[in-house]
Design goal:
392 residues; alpha/beta; TIM Barrel; Lyase, Ornithine Decarboxylase, Chain A, domain 1; 2 domains; seven-stranded parallel β-sheet; six-stranded mixed β-sheet; elongated; binds pyridoxal-5'-phosphate; alanine racemase activity; pyridoxal phosphate; Alanine racemase
């Protein structure tokens, strides 16, 4: 069999001079946001959710910066992410949100990861494994209070606690649930979930409890309990949509202008001719596309505006379809000599927030973040470990 080189590690990124776009990740803003969130609930511990490559910013650098800042509990979604985390931190408490797949218990135990057990089968699986090795290993129990996705329903949880054989084989180290609509504080589902969680918590006396994601932390009920589980807000997303954002921006995306042209009146720009020049327009073609995770739904037509970028301090609309590797911007609002080939257009940053990009894309900032590609040059700043590669 031929041996192939293994794929490039996820944190490898091209040199700035060779890349079409520059993604700047401010790790000191990440740490600041963690402190801000922790400060909202001084009586609770603040964990960090670093699933999905730390929402796209890079699991290793995010985990290292937050560990250095004092964060000692982390959540990932998959066991493979837990494995990556352990390469940079061998001691922190580590939960795997997607729980225990059949046959993986020994791997969890080997790397000291704790599954978030969301069904009786998973609990039985973990209990059997623990009994087999004679160790009461820790695990979280996930209770479903309304999401109907993962977790035991209240009735099953009530039944479970009476099954001593199961519950005594391992150590429940956390009881948790997840909020459905925490970003909309007015909805009755929040109070309903909090009430259900209160009931279920009582079944597990002495076990630390956790309910809040980023937005949950800011709910008027302050259902903070023992452990906060923010993700999005750590990375600069607004946990209080529609109100001012208490978070510092972490991510900045700027791409290079590779050509500037004048388009005559009535000609179209880009695939399928979805944007027509109304009068003579100046168009900048930028080295960024949907292959970089810049969603195609940010394309702009004459009737339906799409995304925007800041060039020379001025907001410029995306003109026409976003292609795989290119975006065309209408820079007619700028003076002729204000911009030249090689300059940057900012797509996230300079007043364009993640949440704005998400809304313009008909999506959410979470998807913008987690879609960020790997063709950018990635520059990490604000870490003591600057220059140390790759954060191990
Ligand atoms: C992703 C996730 C979080 C973090 O949510 P944010 O809205 O990003 O703060 C917390 N808890 C669970 C169970 C999750 O899946």
């Amino acid at each position: 069999m031929t041996a192939y080189a293994s794929p490039t590690a996820p944190f490898a990124s091209p040199q700035e001079a060779d890349a079409g776009a520059l993604l700047t990740i401010d790790l000191s803003a990440l740490v600041k946001n963690w402190h801000t969130l922790a400060g909202e609930a001084p009586e609770a511990e603040c964990a960090a959710v670093i699933k999905a490559d730390a929402y796209g910013i890079g699991l290793e650098p995010a985990a290292s910066a937050l560990s250095d800042a004092g964060c000692t509990t982390f959540f990932v979604a998959h066991l493979c992410e837990a494995e990556r985390f352990r390469a940079v931190n061998s001691t922190a408490t580590l939960y795997v949100l997607n729980g225990l797949l059949p046959g993986t218990a020994a791997h969890f135990a080997a790397i000291g990861a704790r599954p978030v057990l969301g069904s009786r089968e998973e609990i039985a699986d973990w209990a059997t494994y623990c009994a087999g090795i004679g160790k009461k290993l820790p695990a979280a129990i996930h209770i479903d209070t309304g999401m109907n996705r993962l977790g035991l329903r209240l009735e099953s949880a009530t039944k479970l606690v009476s099954e001593a054989g199961l519950m005594e084989a391992f150590t429940p180290s956390l009881v948790m649930s997840h909020l459905v609509s925490a970003e909309t504080p007015g909805l009755p589902i929040n109070a309903k979930q909090i009430k259900a969680f209160e009931a279920v918590r009582a079944l597990f006396p002495g076990v630390p409890a956790s309910l809040c994601n980023s937005s949950g932390i800011y709910l008027p009920e302050r259902p903070h309990y023992d452990l906060l589980r923010p993700g999005y807000a750590l990375y600069g997303g607004n946990p209080r949509p529609g109100r001012d954002n208490p978070m510092a921006p972490v991510v900045r995306l700027a791409a290079r202008i590779i050509q500037i042209r004048t388009v005559p009146d009535a000609e179209t720009v880009g695939y399928s001719g979805h944007w027509t020049a109304e009068g003579r327009r100046r168009i900048a073609t930028v080295s960024l596309g949907y292959a970089d995770g810049f969603l195609r739904s940010l394309s702009g037509t004459n009737l339906k505006p799409g995304g925007e970028a800041v060039v020379g301090g001025v907001r410029c609309p995306i003109a026409g379809r976003i292609s795989m590797d290119l975006i065309t911007l209408d820079i007619s609002g700028l003076a002729e000599d204000a911009v030249k080939r090689g300059d940057f257009a900012t797509f996230i940053g300079d007043g364009i927030s993640l949440d704005e990009v998400g809304t313009r894309a008909g999506s959410i900032g979470y998807e913008i973040l987690t879609s960020l590609g790997h063709r950018f040059a990635r520059r990490y700043k604000g870490s003591d470990r600057q220059g140390q590669d790759p954060f191990i």
